[in-house]
Design goal:
Layout: H1 5-25, H2 30-56, H3 59-73, H4 75-81, H5 92-96, H6 105-126
Protein name: DUF3899 domain-containing protein
Organism: Bacillus spongiae
Keywords: Membrane, Transmembrane, Transmembrane helix
Length: 127
């Protein structure tokens, strides 16, 4: 995560080109199709960035930890854990602290938020 500026610039250039090509071949007027495709791609990047942010911070690790903890606390869970390999990955306390890093989180959040905001402002002025 040393320098995210080139990734941001490449994402913006790529989305601009894709939106331009889509709006050129669309049946809608050029500007409306351009703003619509810009908005959809911005929201897509924002959703992907948000999902990777949630995964990075370990939200699902907490859910997995609580499920394993509940399973070990019940009588039936103790019995079934003897015969399957679901809990043989790592001990519960070690797996809970694992945090994954994804290098595309910040660029996707920044570009997605920026494109969504720009397309909303542009749609307001076009209407």
């Amino acid at each position: 995560m040393k320098n995210i500026l080139p990734r941001i610039l490449w994402l913006i250039i790529g989305i601009f080109i894709i939106s331009f090509l889509y709006s050129f071949f669309s049946n809608l007027p050029f500007l409306i199709a351009f703003v619509n495709s810009f908005f959809v791609m911005g929201l897509l990047l924002l959703m992907i960035g948000s999902f990777t942010f949630v995964v990075e911070k370990g939200f699902f690790n907490g859910i997995i930890y609580s499920i394993k903890r509940f399973r070990k606390s019940t009588q039936a869970g103790k019995f079934f854990s003897k015969y399957d390999n679901l809990d043989s990955t790592k001990p519960i306390h070690e797996e809970y602290l694992v945090k994954r890093t994804v290098s595309i989180t910040q660029p996707f959040l920044i570009v997605g938020g920026l494109l969504t905001f720009i397309s909303i402002v542009a749609a307001y002025y076009l209407a």
